[in-house]
Design brief:
Helix Hairpins; 3 helices
Length: 84
């Protein structure tokens, strides 16, 4: 995967799910795909949590928008994920 972002990670996860559902992989290949899929699930979940936190910051308790600049995602975490 080139540069990992939520959309590419989700697309890869969907591809892995299709490959596993087809049932044409060996046990070892299936386990490798499953492991990769679990890492992608963790990555996507983290990105969704970060997005939710940004939304929470933008919305105050009355449900109206608060003019704040978006917080940058942690680039160090993305680089660490890419290297694993």
């Amino acid at each position: 995967m080139a540069k990992k972002n939520f959309e590419t990670a989700l697309a890869r996860l969907e591809q892995i799910a299709r490959e596993l559902e087809e049932g044409n992989l060996s046990l070892e290949s299936s386990l490798q795909k499953f492991d990769e899929g679990m890492k992608l699930v963790q990555y996507c979940s983290q990105k969704l949590d970060e997005s939710q936190k940004q939304i929470d910051i933008l919305l105050n308790k009355n449900g109206t928008l608060t003019p704040l600049t978006p917080l940058p995602f942690e680039e160090e975490a993305e680089q660490a994920d890419e290297n694993s």
